[in-house]
Design a protein that fits this description.
Length: about 250
């Protein structure tokens, strides 16, 4: 016999959600991965860089998993629990971890880096990225696309604006900052939530899907979704991702 609704809620509402590791969901939820393989592509670029900056690094999971880091590697993060995790993972690799607010200005000199990266940034500060990039340097990022996991947010919030996270807008903003977009691709990817505990954990961790989420506030919606999953099987949603790479012109003639 499966666990009760109350058991699932109690467990998921108390488990720590620090960092950007989703292994707690193994066997309870699934998400397709983008075909381009961000970590592999990031590793290739890091291996060629001499000075790199990773913005909003989370718990440092992605950088810590790369085969090699540049001689100068800096990561920024704003949330204190993630800062501690990132420092524990990245300092042994020789990287610096800097506490920084989630708004510009970046605390670095002009033209300090030949590679700037970010996975799923809350916002992209294009003018600041262009400022800290060296001529010929690149920004490389995987981002959340429009209407990501909309089916889940719609269940809790009803029909609503799918948001502004759009690849075309990202291209225009990069170009407005003086960068040349050399790669831009997007995909929608299937997600499945196998029990209500997986839903609660996901919404506690990915806080922008249902802003202001709490078990108490959405108890009725959670109970209804639990009964739906019990009757029909996993709840299906779709995440949206896009990859963007933009280069700062080096000023030399073609």
């Amino acid at each position: 016999m499966g666990r009760t609704y109350d058991d699932l809620v109690r467990e998921a509402a108390t488990v720590p959600v620090d960092g950007w590791d989703f292994s707690w969901l193994d066997g309870r939820a699934t998400e397709e991965r983008p075909s381009w393989g961000y970590a592999r592509l990031l590793g290739e670029r890091m291996a060629r860089a001499s000075a790199a900056l990773d913005i909003q690094t989370g718990g440092g999971e992605i950088l810590a998993g790369l085969p090699a880091l540049p001689p100068v590697t800096v990561a920024t993060e704003s949330w204190p629990p993630n800062l501690r995790l990132a420092a524990s993972r990245l300092r042994p690799r020789g990287a610096w971890v800097v506490a920084d607010d989630e708004e510009p200005r970046l605390p670095f000199a002009d033209a300090a880096f030949d590679l700037v990266t970010s996975r799923h940034p809350v916002a992209t500060w294009w003018a600041e990225i262009a400022r800290v990039l060296r001529p010929g340097g690149s920004y490389f990022s995987q981002q959340v696309g429009p209407g990501s996991v909309y089916e889940l947010s719609e269940h809790f919030l009803g029909p609503h604006d799918a948001g502004h996270r759009d690849p075309a807008r990202a291209r225009a903003a990069a170009q407005a900052a003086g960068l040349e977009v050399v790669d831009l691709r997007s995909e929608r990817l299937r997600m499945e939530f196998g029990d209500i505990g997986a839903v609660i954990y996901f919404l506690r961790k990915v806080i922008w899907i249902v802003p202001g989420f709490s078990v108490e506030r959405f108890s009725g919606k959670l109970r209804a979704l639990h009964e739906r999953i019990e009757a029909e099987g996993p709840f299906v949603a779709h995440s949206a991702r896009f990859l963007i790479e933009a280069r700062k012109p080096d000023g030399r003639a073609a």
